[in-house]
Amino acid sequence: MARTFGDYLKSLRDERRLTLRKFCLASGVDPSYYCKIENGRELPPQAPDRLRSYFEALGLTEESPEARELTRLASLDRGEIPPIVRNDPSMMGQMPILFRTIEEGRLTDEDLDRVLKAVREG
């Protein structure tokens, strides 16, 4: 099963032994809303300020591997292209080719699975 934003966020919170309430107080988010995010019933936040508040509550810097992974998973869970791809002109230039190849059925199911796995794993 693929890792989701909510699963990863919860694992980071648990590693730091932060209760849901303490995390919510530190990040300034409503506990009910946050619980829905962890359980996948609400999409991850899109606002960079909200994500930064999560990083700060967890003691992460924006450049940390954990923060980058949270940002990537938030984009994927919202059905968006992750920032690392979106901000790279070379990669974005290749996206139309990838989409055409997929639309035209020129990838086998196995090929597509390999591409998706590579995208999910970064």
Oligomer: single chain
Main sheet record = none
Order of helices and strands: HHHHHHHH
Number of strands: 0
Task: Tell me what the structure shows.
This protein has two domains: 5-81, lambda repressor-like DNA-binding domains (434 Repressor (Amino-terminal Domain), Orthogonal Bundle); 88-121, no CATH class. It has helices at residues 5-15, 20-27, 31-38, 48-58, 65-77, 83-86, 89-103, 109-121. The two termini are 16 Å apart. The chain has 122 residues and is mainly α.
Summarize the structure.
The chain has 122 residues and is mostly helical. The chain is built from eight helices and no strands. The protein folds into two domains: 5-81, 434 Repressor (Amino-terminal Domain), CATH 1.10.260.40; 88-121, no CATH class.
Blueprint of the fold:
Elements: H1 5-15, H2 20-27, H3 31-38, H4 48-58, H5 65-77, H6 83-86, H7 89-103, H8 109-121
Helix pairs in contact: 1-5, 2-4
Task: Please name the defining characteristics of this protein.
122 residues, mainly alpha, 434 Repressor (Amino-terminal Domain), 2 domains, 8 helices, elongated
